[in-house]
Amino acid sequence: xxxxxxxxxxxxLGNIMTTPTWQALAIYLxxxxxxxxxQALKQACPSCDASQICNCSSMGLAFIPPGLTAxxxxxxxxxxxxxxxxxxxxxxxxxxxxxxxxxxxxxxxxEDSFQSLAKLELLDLSNNSLAHLSPVWFGHLFxxxxxxxxxxxxxxxxxxxxxxxxxxxxSLHLGSPQLSVIRQGNFEGIxxxxxxxxxxxNLSQYEEGSLKSIKEINHMIxxxxxxxxxxxxxxxxxxxVTWLEVRRIAFGIxxxxxxxxxxxSSFVKKLSFRQILLTDATVPEIASILEDMPKLAELELxxxxxxxxxxxxxxxxxxxxxxxxxxxxxKLSIEEFYLFTDLQPVEGxxxxxxxxxxxxxxxxxxxxxxSQHLLLLEYLDLSANLLGDQSLEHxxxxxxxxxxxTLNLSQNSLSDLExxxxxxxxxxxxxxLDISQNNFGEIPDVCKWPENLKYLNLSSTQIxxxxxCIPATLEVLDVSGxxxxxxxxxxxxxxxxxxxxxxxxxxxxxxPIPNVVALSVRRNKLNSFSKxxxxxxxxxxxxxxxDNNFICSCEFLSFVQHEAGIGQVLVGWPDKxxxxxxxxxxxxxxxxxxxxxxxxxxxxxxxxxxxLVFLVILLLVAVGYKYHVVWYLRMTWAWxxxxxxxxxxxxKDVCYDAFVSYSExxxxxxxxxxxxxxxxxxxxxxxCLHKRDFVPGKWIVDNIIDSIEKSHKTLFVLSEHxxxxxxCKYELDFSHFRLFDENNDAAILVLLxxxxxxxxxxxxxxxxxxxxxxxxxxxxxxEDQQQIFWFNLKIALRS
Length: 799
What we know:
Elements: H1 2-16, H2 19-44, E1 53-55, E2 74-76, E3 84-85, E4 98-100, E5 108-109, E6 122-124, E7 146-148, E8 171-175, E9 181-182, E10 192-200, E11 205-206, E12 216-224, H3 227-236, E13 241-247, E14 250-251, E15 270-274, E16 277-279, H4 283-292, E17 298-302, E18 305-307, E19 326-330, E20 333-334, E21 355-359, H5 368-373, E22 379-381, H6 389-395, E23 406-408, H7 417-424, E24 432-434, E25 455-457, E26 476-478, E27 496-498, E28 518-520, H8 531-536, E29 542-544, E30 550-551, H9 554-562, H10 566-569, E31 579-581, H11 597-600, H12 602-626, H13 629-643, E32 656-661, H14 667-679, E33 687-688, H15 690-693, H16 700-709, E34 711-718, H17 720-724, H18 726-740, E35 747-751, H19 765-773, E36 777-778, H20 783-798
Parallel strand pairs: 1-2, 2-4, 3-5, 4-6, 6-7, 7-8, 8-10, 9-11, 10-12, 12-13, 13-15, 14-16, 15-17, 16-18, 17-19, 18-20, 19-21, 21-22, 22-23, 23-24, 24-25, 25-26, 26-27, 27-28, 28-29, 30-31, 32-33, 32-34, 34-35, 35-36
């Protein structure tokens, strides 16, 4: 719309403006118009943005949104409120392949609305309000294969064929409750249809030859109520339809059956009846017609009703069909099924059937005589019925179903597996048996089965464990949906095992089932499986372990992420394999999880940490030893202890002139020379010696500190022995801070022999400093100098 307006403006401006000017303006207006339409499309249908598929269904649209471009291939506008399709609506969508307009309110379509859609393959206009069909609509749809026109309000298809140009048409759905007439020529131009569906529930007039122009119809579906019109349609389709499906017709009156005799000449190979009505009176007539159909191979009755009890008044005495081999009956409603007879009149018609399906029809018994007449029956489906253990025993009587290979008894009322297996044990050709969704519960240890049984379905049968009742001849076993906690049966021939929806916590052992090719343990309680478990199944090609709560341990992750080719073996990998723990990765796909080194090698990391801690401690000990850290710690403790006491004892408590610190190796000089000289002086000095004056039993630290505090001076007799003596070091350790923290002259150093300050340990830093900065007394070896030494020492003690 915007584009048309822009083009009109171009034409006007072209007449009044110079060429370069109006061309530039024209380009600007085109771009602006396109941008405006694209914005409108994006607002009306957001999914169309940058996509080839536009899903605009159920958005309340009242018109086809503008801005559709050539890049769009699929446009879904179903379930909106569109009433009209205009010429320009789809003009730019030249590459459209599918156009879905069903369930709108369309009542008007411009004749050239679909003119640009030459590549369109599917057009759905069903369930709208079209009152007529125009051939012009479809005139340019050369590629159209699927056309849906049912559910509109047209009464006929026009005077000619609306579909004459649709040479590639494969599926055609048409009709409505208002369709009342089909005219000759309505289908001209159509030669082949894969499917033709006509809803003619109120069709009252059919012109002879209307469908005869179609040479081949693979599947014809017709919903009709008028038996006469139906017979006229069948007459035109005798040789063209392969599969005929009839819906919503009532075969209730015997007199109407004569009109259906035309079906006897039909080449239909498959005939389906859906939602039809049958009676005891019409069943024999229909059976007679079917027997005469020369190519009929399959008969299907779905969701039909039978009024009667099987007491057919006339014996079916017609030649037996040589082609009808398959019959399917589903959801057949027999209101008085409990009065139904034994079907003796049809016994003679059953001998050639190879496949019979009777589902959801309340069958509680198959008479033995019927079973014995099914001589060629290979496939029998009696699922979703009312068969019990005793009735099955009667139904599968001796001589019954002699050729049966596949039997489906699922969703019945069987409860004893021993009786069930015994009832079927004589079926020597039986290969496949489905007895799932019955309620067996506990199963015995020994059962008797058909000798050639290869497939057994015991899923959803409430069995808590499997026993040797399961036959060893099986190649396929399904025990899904039970309460199994383990599986250890010896089944050497088994190739496929299905254990879905059980309580297994680990894969079953491979030794009892060495030939398994496919294994399903989906939705169990499986936490992980190891490389050894996986590789023990040497012939495994498919493993379905999806939808379990996996513990994503390092070993499990390492295995599944690095095992070559595991992605081709695991069914549903990687989407269906999700971690349940650890908590940090819960919900993440197993293949995408990567745990840290600490999580994967916890013991190794702990060991490394322990080794590192030990090495650090060892290093600290070495450093402490080298740098005397222990000494500093001990001295700090002594200093703290000393700090608690007064720095200087009261005068009344000072009872010594000096505390003497000396080495035991120097005790002879101290005790025999120095003590005698000082304590016998006039006036005498009182010295504190550890040997003589320390209080016995008192902690040495307290003795040292108390002696220092009770002495005016501390006299250190220094020598090589002093420096090397552990005892002297111990004394100095606990007196060092007290002596030198006060920064006074309480210490007197006496060098008994020459000693270098470098020989003093570095930890006695203040002692070394005093020796380097203060005068000390040195004991002379010459006797004439000794008196001067004693004089100076006494002066130092009295200072």
